[in-house]
Amino acid sequence: MILSSVEQIAGGVVMLLVMLDAFLTILYARAGAGTISRPLSRAIWWVFRRGSPWFGPHRATVLSFCGPVILTAMVFSWALLLTFGSALVLHPHLGSTVRTSGSTPTDWVSAMYAGGSSLSVVGSSDFRPYSKSMQAFYYFNSLVGMSVLSLTLTYLMQIYSALHARNTFGLKIHTLSACLDDAAELIAGLGARGKIETGFTTLTELAAEASAMKEYHHFYPVLFYFRFTEPFYSLSQSTLMLLDTVSLIKSALDDEQYGWLKESATVAQCWHSSLLLVEMVEANFLKGGTPAGNVPLDEAARERLRARYFSALGRIREAGIQTVADPDTGAEIYLALRERWNAHLERVETRCMSRAK
After folding, report:
1. 3-state secondary structure at position 323
2. Cβ neighbours of residue 224 under 8 Å, at least 6 residues apart?
3. Which pLDDT score, from 0 to 100, does residue 283 have?
């Protein structure tokens, strides 16, 4: 009797955990939530990251399967655990208040079959409840099964809609930079022949889409594990492009002529949306959370980025855009801005996005 009660309580707990996880993952929809899906996703990503180097040049292709595998495992684990929990509840009742028309089997496999069938409103199981409590449990199970199924289907459609928007965002930035993935090239294209006002609308669109990307990944954190073989679809690549674009706008463009752009809400939106996204990834996917304050650049990095700045300055000038009168001061501003995000983004790329080389 005691063993039967423990079995039923354990089954109820398992079912509650699954329903809580579905609630936190689908309805609550916040990064860092989830009792089952979050550790499951991280475990599968760890396996893919550790195992993918064994495939050599096909590593990127292997990693591209991680997101779909996580979604499949998530849905399968919900279905399996709900079935397992129902089986634990029903097992002690087989042969008494839950019976078939003939001789009722009481083994564990039959309990799993009965539990799985009770979750479907169209189940064709021979097992039938013959007590009020079991009839109520069967009815409750059918509601749970129907609800989790419909929520899961809706969730999957939303995931792929958000993924499509993210890929479009990455492709848009890639093509705006003449397919070079260079922030200087992006600025040069937006302000061709010195008319950066004509590209301001495009920059405003990118800023709005950056905010949308932040919220997409806040609502659907499983998106972090979707990656493609093309680098420009990478979230880290898109974030890098926007942060570097803002850093160059603030440090390389002439204050008198383009001060309005530097102080605009559009540039601020690009900056803060991208930073918030990087910080959210660090806080939820890396041990230790978000590092506080700026991360100083070492001397080698400073020299490399200084050279990158002067190269970008030359390309911006070629486009007819007026640059700062004092390039050395501009370089220091650029390095100071890079210190606010460079190490964080590199950490995210290395530990989370892990872009294949």
Report:
1. strand
2. 217, 235, 281, 285, 352, 353
3. 77
pLDDT given at position 355: 46
DSSP result, 51-113: HGGGGGGGHHHHHTTHHHHHHHHHHHHHHHHHHHHHHHHHGGGBTTTEE-SSPPP-SHHHHHH
- The two tokens of residue 132 are 């009020």
Q: How many residues does the chain have?
A: 357
- The predicted pLDDT at position 327 comes to 96
Q: Where are the domains of the chain?
A: 2-153, 177-353
- Residue type, position 175, single letter: T
Distances (CA, A) of 149 to 82, 146, 156, 261: 12, 5, 11, 49
pLDDT at position 297 over 50: yes
Which residues, in sequence order, are bridge partners of residue 94? Answer: 98
Q: Which of 116-120, 200-204, 294-298, 325-329 has the lowest mean pLDDT?
A: 294-298
Question: DSSP of 116-181, one letter per residue?
Answer: HHHT-TT---S-EE-SHHHHHHHHHHHHHHHHHHHHHHHHHHHHHHHHHHHHHHHHHHHHHTTTS-
In angstroms, how far apart are the furthest CA atoms of the chain? Answer: 93
Prediction pTM value: 0.89
**In this structure, which amino acid lies at residue 208?**
A
Calculate the CA dihedral of residues 212, 218, 222, 227 and round it to 10 degrees. Answer: 40
Report the pLDDT value the prediction gives residue 191, as an integer from 0 to 100. Answer: 94
